[in-house]
Amino acid sequence: MMRLRYLLPLGIFLALAVLFVIGLQRDPRQIPSPLIGKPMPEFQLPTLSAPGENLSDSDLNGQVSVLNVFASWCVGCREEHHVVKALAATGVAPVYGLNYKDKRVDAMQWLGRLGNPYKTVAVDAQGQVGIDWGVYGVPETFIMDRHGVIRYKQIGPMSEKALHDKILPLLRKLKQEGES
Amino acid sequence: MIPELGQFAVILALMLAIVQAVVPLVGTMRGYANWSAVARPAAAGQFVFLVIAFAALAHAFLTDNFSVAYVAENSNSALPVAYKFAAIWGAHEGSLLLWVLILGGWTVAVAAFSRNLPDHMVTRVLSVMGVVSVGFLCFILFTSNPFTRLAQPPMEGRDLNPLLQDPGLVMHPPVLYMGYVGMSVAFAFALAALIGGRLDSTWARWSRPWTTVAWLFLTVGITAGSHWAYNELGWGGWWFWDPVENASLMPWLAATGLIHSLAVTEKRGSFRIWTVLLAILAFSLSLLGTFLVRSGVLTSVHAFATDPTRGLYVLGFLTIVVGGSLAIYAWRAPTIAGGNRFEFLSRETMLLGNNLFLLTICAFVLLGTLYPLVYDALGLGKISVGFPWFNVMFLLFAPPLAVVMGLGPLTRWQSDDPQALWRRVRSACLVSVLVFAAFALYHFSWAGLKVALGIGLAVWIAATTVVNLRGRVKPGTGLAGKWRILRRQSRSYYGMLVAHLGVAVFAVGIAAVSVWGIDRNVRLGPGDSADVGGYTFHFQSTKNIAGPNYEADQATVLVTRGGERVAVLYPQKRRYDASGQVMTESGVDGGLTRDLYVALGEPLGDGTWSVRLYTKPFVRWIWGGGLLMAVGGVLAISDRRYRIAAYRSRAHSAVQGRPA
Amino acid sequence: MIARLLLVAVLAFGAAWPAFAVENASRYQFDTEQQRERYWDLLSQLRCLVCQNESLADSQADLARDLRQQVYEQMHAGKSNDAIVDYLVDRYGDFVLFRPPVEPGTYLLWFGPALIFLIGLGFGIRILAQRRGTQAQLSEEDRRRAARLLNDEDGEPRQ
Questions:
Q1: For residue C125, which phi and psi values (nearest 5 degrees)?
Q2: CA-CA distance, B275 to B258, in Å (whole number)?
Q3: Which range marks the domain in which residue C144 is found?
Q4: Quick check: helix, strand or coil at residue B642?
Q5: Using a CB-CB distance cutoff of 8 angstroms, which residues of chain C are in contact with residue B267?
Q6: Which CATH number is correct for A35-179, 3.40.50.300, 1.10.238.10, 3.40.30.10, 3.20.20.70?
Q7: How far A126 CA sits from the closest chain B CA (Å)?
Q8: Can you give the pTM of this predicted structure?
Q9: Is B645 on the interface with C (CB under 8 A)?
Q10: Which of A155, B164, C24, C57 is the most buried (most CB within 10 A)?
Q11: What is the ipTM, given to two decimal places?
């Protein structure tokens, strides 16, 4: 005859087990961005190809856009670069690059070797703009809607699966939003 | 060849563990005596093969056999020999082998030292321990094999994590595992009692020494870990409420509750349900710790390389063992419930209070450790629960525990008179309140209140200890008479006093260091100096030195006080050759009343360094307290009644004509 | 300015040259000792996001260095601790704090321990009420006699 109070420890344990099963499917190192749903941070940085010219947030405003944070010293960026190129090739949205804490020369060589999918690349040599965007590891990719509001942040290298399942559909949806 | 031998030995150990788990249990249920008799030999055989497996892995390390993947990842030919041996348990797979080896050791110990227990009880205990062995051996063989070979062995290994290349840390895992794994004995005893439907004070007397030994190891292991972190991590801290640290604290708290609960069951026959539940809880928390550390579910400095599939396996194992035992508890607990009666004011109540506070602390540690997971699982995002939260909760619930610790031993069993109790504790109460008030008024700040509380409670515990002793020797006439009484007291009585004093010493340490400790982060170049807490630290010079497997920048720091030389410290910043990892080796001058601590930060160019300077008053009392607690445990298990029991069982066997 | 950039570039390629990455020396200039303490105190309360459980004060990660620089500059610009913390939380979320905020999502965390204690207390009182004995009442004399018979010399019950 099992009295309820003797079943309590078992009940608590089973609840914990369920919690752990959920936990095993999450990555504790992925930190969601508090900037989602907020307008993108203001910035003005020199471009990679022409240091005398600038890229600023107003250039990205008014259209659905993608900002990809990368660096030549970053292994994950190399891995995802072909996906970034694929994304740019679809022409769904312009892809801007943010060269994070890198040397100009190295970045240009890197892009020269691997291909340059970016409409324009901004140079954030000291990482200050990166901090404003809440960048904590490269690569990271941000998607903004027509009004310049950040709608999505991809943490870590973009996989082809992520591109097809999440990013392209989202970009198309955001473009439709503006039109209706 | 030898690694394959090791792998084969693990397989054989698993076979024997399965036999050990299943056959004797069936034997006791069906009454087949020769099946039950298999338990002890199976345990012995399993242990032999585990030793062989461990020796095989050791051989691979000591001969730099980099064709074994685990050796290639965790060792290096330039590694000093002692660390090559310690590298066996430096990462996930090998540490699991150590775990299961130690479990085998405990099992053999139980098999050997239980001659005076009824056979069916021993059989059940060994069966349960066999089940745990089976689980871990399967885990090793199917997901975490240390003997896997590399198709293309590298020329050189990747080196042992530099953080682990320290004498203190070499011993930390084995000692800690002795504690974690030792809890399985109490667990097995509890399940055996539940299954058998009989739990009385004799059962408690058998369980108690095993539990105390495991608790002892856990105490030393945690203390050693804290001391190591202080020395090695360079920020002068001794506890960070890191998830893995918490994972070791929780079983300790449950085990402390357990040894007290066992005392009540042994002496009064009460608290049977509590004892059984605490025994299951202590070991469950050990297993939970294994899960948390190896599954990647939480972020921690300690975490092993994370792998969710391993995590899933451990979770499955956890569910079977813990869920199964709690199910057995739910089914059988009513048959062992009940106990002697006691009044509101009695030692039983005090011990109940003790359990309440210990378990509340255990619960909040669990809550804080798991809350980020809960928050994430609920879809609320990522949150971090760090030391500020834990410290607040600790400050809330540890002081009442200290109060009960002082009151308990002075309260009579079963029923005490409030007036009589007050008369006994009156002086101790007065002294501790005075000390508290003195410190509180002297400092007159929030921090001052904390230090006053810590020291006041320490004085309370010490004073009640004195009152206790005085009460015992009162009947004695003259010094000689009192001495005679003191000599007659049991070791377990002194064990309790020493262990409680250990808590008092510990409390002084943490209060002093938290409030009076000073730390400064300064920029120093050769010839510069800085003042900290009355001491002057003179940064004299730096030089480049080469160690066996690292190169380092070593600074010479002279510490003076009032112009008098106090110490010379040599903090280092090491860069290990194989991994390129950078590590801090702090310069520490340890003392009974204070530590002086220097850690190099980063080079700032032009020969200057960022340096952290600390004065740490009474920090050694923290670990001194921990060691005292362990000494108390040693005294308790060397108590005459256990030695008599051993003597009696040998005599009994001699009379019966059986080998002892 | 160039020296700063060079320093930062060296920072980014720390492992290569020199043997150890170099920290920004100017970050150790403070006007008062109090300011210095405030700086390091604040840093020890902020989590390094890319580390396994370290604070900004202790971590050697690149991001930690950058954020230390940020906090230093803001402090020298006159910002209060709260303002600096808000700045970081706006960009990185609550995860950057070691002390979890008290908000509806964390009520269970902050009030949970007290709740657990009260539930435990309730259980405890129930056990006490159940166990209250009506044992036979002995006189002091009888009680002492019984104690002498039942307990050994240590005052503990005989085994």
A1: -65, -35
A2: 6
A3: 104-150
A4: helix
A5: 156-157
A6: 3.40.30.10
A7: 18
A8: 0.89
A9: no
A10: C57
A11: 0.88
